Amino acid sequence: MTIDTTNMCSHLQKKFFEADGVYFSIWQAIQNDEELSAVVRSRQLHIYPNGKKILVLAGKAQPKVIREDKLNELLK
Question: Residue 20 sits in which domain range?
């Protein structure tokens, strides 16, 4: 998957794309699951499986769980 990072804050980029980042396991899961998609909106990353938003990741703020999903377990 390709994510347009031009509007993604630098804090989130580090947490998401760097191997020691707290969200790196979510990035790996997205890469391995064709049902997951992600879109950058308002400098945050919105994650969708099958078109239903489940999670919003931000750079400095806490992640926002929208719906329960197995992907949310990777936040712990």
Answer: 10-75
